[in-house]
Amino acid sequence: MKGLVIGGGVAGLRAALDIANAGFDIYLVERDYSIGGRSAQITKSYPDLTNIKDVLKPLMEEVYNHERITLLTNSEVLGLEGEAGNFKVKIEKKPRYVPDGESCEKCIEVCPVEVPNEFNEGLDKRKAIFVPFSYAVPDGCVIDETNCLHFKDGSCSRCKEVCDGINFDQKAETIEIDVGSVVVATGFDPFDPNLRPELAYDKYDGVITSLELERLLDDDGPTGGKVIINGEEPKSIVFAHCIGSRDKKVDNPYCSRICCMYTAKEAYMLREKLPDANITACYIDMRAFGKGCEEFYEEVQKKQVLYRRGVAAEVYSNGGNLVLRAEDTLLSEPYESTADMIVLAVGVEPKEGSSELAENLGIKMDEYGFFVEKNMYDPVETEKEGIFLAGCCQGPKDITDSILQGGAAAAKAIGLMGRHSN
Amino acid sequence: MMEVEEGNFDEAYDVYACMQCGKCTGSCAVSLRSDLNIRELMRIAILNKNEDLEKHEEIWDCTSCGICTVRCPRDLKPAEVIIGMRSSLVEGGTIPVTVRDALESVGTNNNPWGRPKSKRAEWLEDLDVKVKNISEGEEAEYLLYIGCTASYDPRIQSVSRAAINVLTKLGVDFGILGEEEPCCGSEPRMMGETGLFEMLVEDNLTLFDEFGISKIITLSPHAYNTFVNDYPECAKRLKEDDVEIPDIELEVKHYTQFLEELIDDGRLDGEMMNEFSGTVIYHDPCYLGKRNNIFEPPRKILNIIPGARCIEFDRREDRSLCCEGGGGRMWAEGTGTGERNAIIRVNDANQDGANVIAVACPFCLSTLEDAHVTAGYEETMRVMDIFEILDEVLK
């Protein structure tokens, strides 16, 4: 009997490996061009400051090379029928147009199209034929057909002229597979800060999201690890907590759980790079739960990161300088603070397309769009037998907890498939 | 715990649900120059008693711009809490003299300006155009609701006259209520005179019903807001208390919305206008923008005026800076020190290179007009209502 894991982020990778290592064949379906998920965009973990790449890259390669794992990237689950132990799942496999591992990159040089690079949160550009990121798996180039001129109007085939491997004639195909269990691990999207227009995210280059800062902090990132805003190193930085979290006005009344700590980590890394900068964090309540987190928070404070209670209220410009308005609620003092860089700690939202997937799989979503677990004693099971949940698709959680839940979902899937195999 | 007529502050405003994040005070239009701290007041409402409000004179500094309510992440209504606190003070009689006079004048003269009802239509006297008076039995599709400030304030009266000229030129079938026009009640409500507001809602809906008025165009965003948002809610509450209120559905538009429709219908365009000369910067009124998300219509009108070079404030739309004209502030100078927002605003406009500040609200016109004189821009800059600009350019 085979299993299916949907989503190739840390939770899905852990689940796929655990199930495969228990002796079951596994399909791992990933919608993106590469596995790795959101974690691949992150530089270091908290509170231990592990380089994510050092952990994630081997995990991704292990999955890719595992003889029991069939990896289907650029693919999507279209439908599911049957019952636990005997599901029929329809999957659309979209073409990459370039054979796996083909990456002499001459094609990239000649491609005339430039679009914002999603992996770097739009901080730089990529071509329509591109390598998703430095340690993408599968490696090699892919063509993004929505931006490629060949697919738009047939006006260009420059990449093909320099690379015989490219095949524009590849077509999407729909396959049907038989599986005994499904682990759903589709992850999350960051909150769109434009829904809080007073923070002026779309108005000023100096206002960025926490995920953009991750890309700036990454040695592999668009600036080679230099934190540069408007061509200069920022001298004053304000972190704004709870953007799109604990906020009924944007229908996200929940706490996203990870933002307090990833902000602390980003502040720590910034301090290392910018020893003389003024660093402030505007917060409502600090939530530094979890092993080692409170101690890490204290360490960050001691590095002269000023934690100022009171949420960021509004951003504007005064004579060309960015100004953040807020109240220091401990002093009962409203203030205006100039900043070169304002980092919005955006919260966790259900992955785009979650409701379609819920419908295709026949599982429930909560009012925010996260998938619903069966009950507190079966926290990785859904009400539909044989379908399990792991990671942020079930609710906001950090990398460690996502991996933990991936393992738990795998154990449940192994148990179920074991029972059905006997 | 403090109390209002509807019950205690938790029953009326959910004050226990406040998480003290400070979004309200951080966003507040006056908190940088006044002791007004709405976040603290949310807490004081739980921990203190009504009589303690007397030492919080700064409660009268609130401009009722509503941004605290618009942005509250817990979806509470801090702006209403202020009204509740003011109503407690009104009831106790410990209110600024000027506010008391304004409220008394609404009761006796149907306007807060202390002017007799018989003078309400005096602004009409300099007009060459004949205007229908609905209160005298003339029929019209729309009531042009002028409002108290545009009826009595000499500077703002010019907007009323401009409105008549423009709507007449555009062939709109409209009328006014002349001396019979009542106060809409928006300012009394914001000043905490809840009982008076309820009386006005009852009287005014009866009056509109009597004269067969169902479509209203307002000059003021404050009147617009109260007709659209406060009246239905208040009427519902009154009906539940068995007060007889006519069942009428009002279709209310701020004049910029109405003119936008004329543009869309091809009844208003740039070819109907002479060249305007100037760099125009539009100031969003809180009651149109922040409170009601109406950002586009005024801009659309300004953009079709030939010759007008339209520019924008950095702080605009959702982030516009309140002029401090609302919430009873016309009758309460406020405790605040430091630069008035209106001064900041005209200085910004000057720095941005504007020589016309376009407004769409009588209070904004009043505060900015005053500020542009104080700041020394009398010779270089004009503050104009959009109706005044149109009156100047329409052929």
Notes on the protein architecture:
The complex is a heterodimer of chains A (422) and B (395). Helices cover 25% and strands 26% of the residues of chain A. By secondary structure, chain A is α/β, with parallel strands linked by helices. Chain A folds into three domains: 2-94 and 172-187 and 351-421, FAD/NAD(P)-binding domain, CATH 3.50.50; 106-150, no CATH class; 191-348, FAD/NAD(P)-binding domain (3-Layer(bba) Sandwich), CATH 3.50.50. In chain A, helix 1 (10-21) crosses helix 2 (52-65), helix 1 runs parallel beside helix 10 (399-421) and helix 6 packs parallel to helix 7 (259-273). The radius of gyration of chain A is 22 Å and the shape is globular. The termini of chain A are close together. Chain B has helices at residues 9-13, 23-27, 38-47, 67-71, 78-92, 97-109, 148-152, 154-169, 186-190, 194-210, 221-240, 255-264, 296-304, 341-351, 362-374, 386-393; strands at residues 3-4, 7-8, 132-133, 142-145, 174-176, 215-218, 251-254, 278-282, 308-311, 356-359, 382-385. In chain B, the strands form three sheets. A five-stranded parallel β-sheet of chain B has the order 3-5-4-6-7. Chain B has a four-stranded parallel β-sheet with strand order 9-8-10-11, with helices on both faces. A two-stranded antiparallel ribbon of chain B has the order 1-2. In chain B, helix 8 (154-169) packs across helix 16 (386-393).
